[in-house]
Amino acid sequence: MPAPGVVAVAGEALVDIVPAPVAGYHELAPGGSPANTAVGLARLGVPVRMLARLADDLLGRRLRTHLERNGVDLSHVVAAAEPSSMAVVEVDERGVASYDFRVAGTADWQWTADELADALSGPVVALHTGSLALTTAPGAAVLRDLVRRAAPTATVSYDPNCRPLLMGGDVLAGVHEMVGLADIVKVSSEDLDWLLPGTSYDTVVDDWLARGAALVAVTLGADGVLAATAAGLRTRLPGRPVEVVDTVGAGDTFSAGLLTGLHTRGLFGAAAREALRAIAADDLDAVLDGAIRAAAITCSRRGADPPTADELDRSAASGRP
After folding, report:
1. 3-state class (DSSP) for residue 85
2. 134 and 11 in contact (C-beta within 8 Å)?
3. CB of 264 within 8 A of CB of 195?
């Protein structure tokens, strides 16, 4: 069973317009990288608090219902006056997703400091954030301040989850700022190919650990994950063979699996910071393997549909995703 303590997740909860089973049609599905991670955590049994701005429109109400049904605590969600954000998703013949966005003036980016004043109250042991919420003005500055407030007392988890279509300017400087505050950084190989083209992943991992992270994990799609710790551990685990339906939400599910494994081992909170940095090799591999299996399950079905704890346990017992 997961250890006590709440994981807060801050960022966007938007609606994905995804390909439907009938060719040429699309349907609405809950999405947004942070919201997907929150759902993944809740399904794996971790107490999770969502910090989001949800509109009181048709799409916002659907998002709220989806999060509530999955056991995500919405007591700190802001009722936003602005409309919901949308992402149009296309999937290629390999199941790889690409995105177009409708986000101008929408609810997710309008944070004020007052709205997050008590966001970390109570038994919050970790804060996870990233993606568009940390790069889209005006709310990005407010969320970055939240990360700074969280860092002294809570474990900070960060996923850049880059969206080049919307992330203009000097994104790398902002990423490095967050890496310097984070304990855990999960980043995809696609993110790094865009942020630091031509730089080896091992070089990036070394640099980001030197900037202060305790654990950096680079997801490699079907090739698995490369990870290293501040204490000098380095490991690479293969991916799990799976018939890919699409990759929507796979990275967010990996984050949820990674955080669940660390939470279960009691490695969150300021008091556990040194223990996280010194995680044993067997424990690290087990945590990463669980995250890989969780992501593989999501890839095997349509949309951002992370597994439950029972599904993940069954995959471990069977040796298949």
Report:
1. coil
2. yes
3. no
Q: Band the pLDDT of 92: cuts 50, 70, 90.
A: confident
Average pLDDT (50-57) is: 97
Tokens of 89: 């998703």
Alpha helices in the chain, H assignment, sequence order? 33-43, 58-69, 139-150, 171-181, 189-195, 201-210, 250-264, 273-277, 281-299, 309-318
In-domain check, residue 139: yes
Pair type for strands 225-229 and 234-237: antiparallel
Q: How many CB atoms lie within 10 A of CB 243?
A: 9
- Asked if residue 219 has pLDDT above 60, the reply is yes
Given a cut of 50, is residue 200 above it in pLDDT? yes
Q: How far apart are CA 185 and CA 159, in angstroms?
A: 6
Paired strand residues for 31: 14
Domain containing 188 — which CATH number? Answer: 3.40.1190.20
Domain extent for 271? 6-318
Query: Is 255 inside any structural domain?
Result: yes
Write the DSSP symbol of residue 73.
Answer: B
d(CA 180, CA 48): 24
- The total of structural domains in the chain comes to 1
Identify the band that residue 100 occupies on the pLDDT scale cut at 50, 70 and 90.
confident
Q: How far apart are CA 50 and CA 53, in angstroms?
A: 9
For 225-267, write each residue's pLDDT tens digit.
999 999 999 999 999 999 998 888 999 999 999 999 999 999 9
